[in-house]
Amino acid sequence: MVTAILLAAGKSLRFIKGRNKVLFKICGKPVIYYSLLALSRHPKIDEIIVVSSLETLSKIKRLIKGYRINKVSKVILGGKERKDSVSSGLKELSLKTSLVVIHDAARPFINSKIITDSILAAKKRGAAVVGVPLKYTVKEHI
Fold it and tell me: Do 10 and 22 meet the contact criterion of CB atoms below 8 Å apart?
């Protein structure tokens, strides 16, 4: 069984003041929706555990229900830091889980190919991490 842990407990400290990144709307839908959709539609993902902050817990539960994301088995509270939220998610795994996919809900561009490639690489090597090439920032000093 493959379980996805979707991390959505961040504080969005570098985002727009007073706004939570995972609930911010892009094309009319919250950022978290795109990750939930990709994970729930993937045939290899059996369940999703969403890790939320206390401030967004009820909103995230409502949007999961509203968008009918059926693979979400639990919405739990995260910890103080990302590592604590990952730990909280791992503690909720079913004994049937043989592989875990962990994704940050603030990154909405996950797709089926990335998920498939990650699962295949993890099965082959025991673990896998997705990365993208570094992009340099160009700044103009005035």
Answer: yes
d(CA 111, CA 113): 6
Specify the CATH architecture of the domain 2-125.
Alpha-Beta Complex (3.90)
Q: What is the pLDDT of residues 80-112, one digit of tens each?
A: 888 999 999 999 999 999 999 999 988 888 999
Query: pTM here?
Result: 0.85
Q: How far is CA 9 from the centre of its chain?
A: 10
Enumerate the domain spans of the chain.
2-125
Strands 72-77 and 47-52: parallel
Q: Which of 81, 77, 61 shows the shortest CA–CA distance to 69?
A: 61
Give ∠ CA 102-118-132 in degrees, rounded to 5.
85
Quote the DSSP letter at residue 68. T
- Residue range 39-62, pLDDT digits in tens: 999 999 999 999 999 988 999 999
Retrieve residue 2's tokens: 């493959």
User: Can you tell me the distance from the alpha carbon of 120 to that of 124, in angstroms, rounded to the nearest whole number?
Assistant: 6
- Rounded to whole angstroms, the Cα distance separating 142 from 133 reads 29
